[in-house]
Design brief:
Blueprint: H1 3-11, E1 15-19, E2 26-29, H2 31-37, H3 41-45, H4 57-69, E3 74-80, E4 86-98, E5 101-110, H5 112-126, E6 137-143, E7 146-150, H6 152-158, H7 180-193, E8 197-205, E9 211-223, E10 226-235, H8 237-255, E11 259-264, E12 269-272, H9 274-280, H10 284-287, H11 302-315, E13 317-325, E14 331-342, E15 348-357, H12 359-373, H13 383-395, H14 397-400, E16 404-411, H15 414-421, H16 423-440, E17 446-449, E18 454-458, H17 465-477, E19 480-482, E20 485-487, E21 491-498, H18 505-521, E22 527-529, H19 532-553, E23 557-566, E24 572-583, E25 587-589, H20 591-601, H21 604-624, E26 631-635, H22 638-643, H23 646-657, E27 664-669, H24 670-675, H25 678-688, E28 693-699, H26 706-709, E29 716-719, H27 721-724, H28 731-747, E30 750-753, H29 759-767, E31 772-773, E32 782-783, H30 787-795
Parallel strand pairs: 21-22, 24-26, 26-27, 27-28, 28-29, 29-30, 30-31
Antiparallel strand pairs: 1-2, 1-5, 3-4, 4-5, 6-7, 6-10, 8-9, 9-10, 11-12, 11-15, 13-14, 14-15, 16-18, 16-21, 17-18, 19-20, 23-24, 23-31, 23-32, 24-25
Helix pairs in contact: 15-16, 16-17, 18-19, 19-20, 21-23
Length: 801
């Protein structure tokens, strides 16, 4: 830019940026940009526009393509500022030559309030637009009430193709019946006086039957040696409509929600509407003859009004937000749109200002921002605000010469509280957690809820991260009373440190997450610092989630089947479907590795359907081959039930695979069923009506209510393998298994023990009356192609390979 352009860039009140279009780097920003965004010019010069623009690259390209197609250089974007807020902006961009480089020169205008009220303003504006068009005059002559002459405009007025069609026809045939007597009276009067009559409004009839409103002027004349009457008829249909519109406009002027001020060319008020009085408190009589400056609040300086008048002089219009003062002295925000009005000779005659009270809009915007940046349950800042504040803190690292510390707090075993006691109890635990963190951490530390049971803390500079993390852990280790129950919801705390301003906020938060996960892996209720080993876990977790989504979409997951055996006859009575992931790099992954990720990300819904479809389709194939596999058991995640319509999905899959429902058994965990209340009973009853079986998995590990259990339509209780493993050497586990078997028999359920690995365990189960079992003693879970061989081997009592 030359010196003149450089001076404009430096001193302009508009926000201006110079951007390298090749990589989006901000080459320069004027002082107004620094004030607008809250970052110094030096900081802005070190940033890329993608750090400010909240839209993704694909959406930015789409909007730019759309602008090129429409041949315009303005765009609407959402930009973030240093304090974490996001603002709607209008950007005007164009390429310039800057010291031999092609740079993008962008001027940024705040468009938030404008966009929020644009529709209301447009709706109000169009009602003021009035167009009154003059109609051409129709001229005709009649003698003895018959047309003797008519011009072409008469034919057009009456809807005829040619004026000659009128000659000889009766004039009264084209007069509305209500006005024929008036026409005769006027003709008689002219015959007596020999003079014309004053103009009158008459309704005539169009050829299509519609009514034409006309104003007629009539005078006696001689035509073709005969006495006649000359009539000039002016179509006033549009004029009547125009009058109606004028009346409508007057109504709109008085009743619109926007205030309207009309001044003369000297800026003296000549009129206001009711909305103006409602907004400002001033009656019309109090302001007529006054200058609108009586509303000034003093918040805007002289430079503001200089820019306002400059815009009016150069463009004839100005729009912007200002603060004004009501009659009672209170201040309020106002969107103002001023237009200069000129006459036919382009002389300035008036100014018209439309004002919109933005008080409610500002209040609503604050509420929306609170909803956008805060967690509704706890009232704490959410992940969006936390990352924005973390980003700002990292940007200040270099200047303040101290590191940024982040604590990541995970509640240990929170999932079991939700599943066992219900979501309401879980919510109370989360609210209590938030209150305890606020009690032990000073206000200068930012506490946020960033996930279901995850909290994060951005520590203020100079804080002792270790002691604060320990204080938070200790506070959360205290028992919590929920619905008269005493719960222990301990927490694992991870600490991560950002030493450089170039640190990525997401990466730093991910590091603290990895450290808290390490603490949980060591038993929970611990504080751990981030290390490179933890980082590998976080990386794997993110990577696996992305890869799992692709694996589900490509149907790359496989299902293995483990036999379920009658312990007396030692014959196969069923198969349990167990999903596996044949990962291209990590090999065959067990469900324990990826099911939690699927539940956290919502992928469990699609994954669950895929497993059910695969298993039911395979079962149909075995039936067609004459293979007796017994009952097919498929696990259903508690998250899957909460987030989808399970009954409809199961019914669809059974119909799709043409599998009779009695071949299918669904397994749901005890903790989920007992924590779901009445909804669990409704769900199970709905599934039972389809004709399938239902098993309670992991029985004995949750909080079962026997009074509630007897009302549920279960077919099978599955004894958790934690009891079966030590059955042959633990009298307590033997007693627990014996009690479960007796309970199942009393309630009419069959019992099946998981994890049977030795002959001793099998014999012990038989001795206490457990009829069915599954485990490595009979075989591992195998691919579908090996199932016929495994069934044959077990049924013929051959030893497993």
């Amino acid at each position: 830019m030359n010196n003149g352009a450089g001076s404009v860039f430096e001193n302009n009140y508009s926000v201006m940026l110079l951007i390298d279009p090749s990589d989006g780097r901000i080459v320069d920003a004027n002082p107004a940009a620094a004030r607008f965004y809250g970052w110094s010019r030096e900081t802005l010069r070190s940033m890329r526009i993608s750090e400010i623009n909240q839209l993704g690259d694909a959406e930015v390209r789409r909007r730019m393509d759309e602008a090129r197609h429409e041949k315009r250089n303005t765009f609407l974007f959402r930009h973030c500022t240093a304090d974490g807020s996001v603002r709607d902006v209008q950007v005007q961009s164009g390429l310039i030559d800057h010291h031999g480089r092609k740079l993008l020169y962008s001027i940024v205008h705040d468009a938030g309030e404008y966009l929020a009220t644009l529709r209301a303003l447009k709706k109000s504006e169009h009602k003021f637009q009035q167009v009154i068009q003059a109609a051409p005059d129709a001229i005709f002559i009649h003698s003895d009430l018959a047309f003797s002459y008519a011009n072409h405009q008469t034919a057009r007025l009456l809807g005829l193709r040619d004026e000659n069609e009128l000659l000889g026809r009766r004039v009264l045939d084209y007069i509305h019946p209500d006005f024929r007597e008036l026409a005769r009276s006027r003709i008689s009067r002219m015959a007596v006086t020999g003079d014309g009559v004053p103009p009158a409004e008459v309704d005539m009839l169009h050829a299509d039957g519609s009514i034409i409103h006309v104003e007629v002027s009539s005078v006696p004349i001689e035509h073709d040696d005969r006495s006649g009457i000359l009539v000039i008829a002016r179509d006033i249909t549009l004029r009547r409509q125009g009058m109606q519109r004028l009346r409508l406009s007057a109504t709109v002027f008085e009743n619109t929600g926007e205030g309207i001020i009309i001044t003369d060319a000297s800026s003296r008020i000549v009129g206001v509407n009711r909305a103006f009085s409602r907004i400002t408190g001033y009656a019309e009589a109090e302001v007529v003859g006054e200058n609108p400056r009586l509303l000034q609040s003093g918040r805007q300086g002289r430079s503001f009004y200089r820019r306002l008048w400059k815009g009016l002089r150069e463009k004839g219009r100005w729009q912007g937000e200002m603060w004004n003062r009501r009659k009672d002295g209170s201040l309020y925000p106002q969107l103002t749109r001023i237009n200069a009005v000129r006459d036919d000779q382009e002389r300035l005659t008036h100014y018209v200002a439309v004002i919109t009270d933005l008080s409610e809009l500002h209040s609503s915007q604050q509420k929306i921002e609170k909803l956008y940046y805060h967690d509704l349950l706890t009232g704490l800042p959410n992940r969006v605000m936390f990352l924005a504040r973390l980003k700002s803190a990292l940007a200040r690292v270099r200047r303040r010469n101290h590191a940024v510390h982040v604590l990541h707090i995970d509640l240990d075993g929170f999932k079991h509280i939700n599943e066992s006691l219900g979501l309401q109890a879980g919510d109370q635990v989360l609210q209590e957690t938030a209150q305890r963190l606020q009690a032990v951490l000073a206000p200068q530390h930012l506490i946020a809820r960033i996930g279901a049971d995850e909290f994060a803390v951005l520590l203020a500079g100079g804080s002792n991260a270790e002691s604060l993390a320990e204080a938070a852990r200790a506070a959360l280790a205290e028992p919590i009373t929920v619905n008269d129950r005493v719960l222990f919801a301990t927490a694992s705390v991870g600490i991560a440190v950002g030493w450089q301003s170039s640190c990525d906020p997401e990466a730093l938060l991910q590091q603290s997450d990895a450290a808290s996960h390490q603490a949980q892996g060591e038993g929970g209720n611990l504080v751990r610092h981030y290390s490179e080993e933890h980082g590998q876990y976080a990386h794997d977790r993110v990577l696996l989630a992305a890869q799992l989504r692709q694996a589900i979409e490509r149907r790359e997951l496989i299902v293995h089947y483990q036999p379920q055996v009658d312990l007396e006859s030692e014959r196969v009575v069923g198969l349990e479907a167990l999903v596996r992931w044949q990962h291209p790099d990590l090999g065959l992954l067990s469900p324990e590795r990826f099911i939690p990720i699927a539940e956290d990300t919502g992928l469990i819904i699609d994954l669950g359907r895929l497993v059910l479809e695969t298993a039911c389709s395979q079962a149909r194939s075995w039936l067609d081959q004459g293979i007796d596999f017994g009952l097919l058991s498929v696990n259903v995640s508690g998250v899957q039930v909460q987030r989808s319509d399970l009954r409809d999905m199961v019914e669809q899959v059974l119909d799709q695979c043409e599998l009779p429902a009695h071949y299918l058994e669904l397994e749901l965990t005890e903790s989920f069923i007992m924590g779901s209340g009445d909804s669990a009973s409704e769900l199970l009853q709905g599934l039972k009506r389809l004709g399938l079986g239902i098993a309670m998995d992991d029985f004995g590990t949750g909080y079962s209510s026997l009074a509630y259990l007897k009302e549920l339509p279960f077919d099978t209780l599955k004894i958790d393998q934690s009891f079966t493993r030590t059955l042959d050497r633990s009298s307590r586990d033997t007693a627990i298994c014996q009690a479960i078997v007796a309970l199942g028999r009393a309630l009419g359920f069959r019992t099946l023990a998981e994890g049977v690995e030795t002959d001793e365990q099998r014999e012990k189960l038989k001795s206490i009356g457990c009829r069915f079992g599954q485990g490595f003693l009979f075989d591992r879970a195998v691919g579908a192609d090996r199932v016929p061989e495994v069934i044959e081997r077990i049924n013929t009592r051959k030893a497993p390979a």
